[in-house]
Description:
Elements: H1 6-24, H2 26-45, H3 49-79, H4 85-124, H5 134-156, H6 166-181, H7 185-204, H8 210-233
Helix pairs in contact: 1-2, 2-3, 3-4, 5-6, 6-7, 6-8
Amino acid sequence: MIQPTKWQRSFRYAYEGVKYALATQRNMKFHFFAALVVLVLAFFFNLSKFDVLFILLAVTLMIVTELINTAVEKAVDLAMPDIHPLAKIAKDTAAASVLVSAAFAAVTGMIIFYEPVDNLFRIARSSEGQSFTAGTVWVLLTLIILTVIVVETRFASKGNRAKPSLLTAVAFAVATLLTCQVQETLPSLLGFFLAGVLLVVLYDRRTRTLASLWLGALLGSFITVLAYYLYHINL
């Protein structure tokens, strides 16, 4: 049998480390999913080479710091199983590096994607149409709530954990509705930002799985866009 060379073993060990972090660390799963979404958006908006380099830098920095944070936590747990002030400082400092890289990634994403998203919203709003009335808005939100409840009830007996989240469905429906109603892009982005903050908070509290939260968000946005489209067709 041919023995693997040194660099092959190093690559395998590194790959095992990535798989371990992705399988056991909730934050790593979130970062990988966010990175996937960002890269898909970069492809969709056909970003320039310069913008793509910044996106890759932010994604790489985010994943690397999370890997280092995981390594520090496991090393500290091995060396100091009991609670110790210095162990806490080591873990908090490693977690701070993740926070800094996450802030850098968020700011980078907002700067790079603002202009293409603004152009996309302006194109979507270019066609003149009547806005939703107050009654129509409440009917739409009620329809979304009932849809989520029906979907949750439909799959409850099967033990499916990827059931849509009602809160994220409503939050992203409101953000999508703002995008359809207002003429400025900034309020729309702020609406999606607040909806995203709610998603992160719910995920951090472990009340729902990541798939459940994103399924609710997609369901709320999809129903809102479909209702808006059908509403203007029937005018």
